[in-house]
Q: What sequence folds into this?
């Protein structure tokens, strides 16, 4: 068994090295890389119940008039652009993590959805599109 001399400062040095690595990771990227301009895809949730399929898309800082929604050949397309609120001076920012620029999301709709009857709303930066399902009444057949 080897005998190792205990150095109480070694734990502090180890912690300091870990903190330095952590800070290096946080500050090594250039600010220009962090402006996040370009094409972005806002996150979406899709869920359904017995009556409809609902698509919710996060669109912070956008109003309904800034978003184009269209259905063509069973494909729902959401399109728009998120712009900076004011002129951005790169030297004033340490980090910008939110995306800016044009976006487009497309979703293939199932044939059993009534896309011409969809309902659209926007609340707290979340665009909600509700697409009702085609109601199919049960058919009773009689034997002859």
A:
């Amino acid at each position: 068994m080897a005998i190792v001399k205990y150095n109480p400062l070694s734990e502090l040095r180890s912690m300091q090295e870990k903190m330095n690595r952590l800070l290096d990771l946080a500050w090594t990227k250039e600010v220009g890389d962090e402006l996040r301009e370009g094409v972005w895809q806002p996150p979406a949730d899709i869920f359904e119940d017995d009556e409809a399929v609902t698509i919710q898309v996060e669109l912070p800082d956008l109003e309904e008039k800034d978003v184009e929604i269209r259905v063509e050949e069973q494909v729902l397309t959401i399109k728009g652009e998120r712009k900076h609120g004011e002129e951005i001076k790169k030297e004033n920012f340490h980090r910008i993590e939110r995306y800016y620029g044009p976006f487009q999301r497309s979703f293939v709709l199932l044939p059993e959805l009534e896309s011409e009857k969809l309902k659209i709303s926007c609340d707290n930066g979340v665009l909600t599109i509700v697409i009702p399902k085609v109601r199919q009444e049960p058919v009773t057949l009689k034997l002859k």
Remarks:
- DSSP finds one helix and seven strands in the chain.
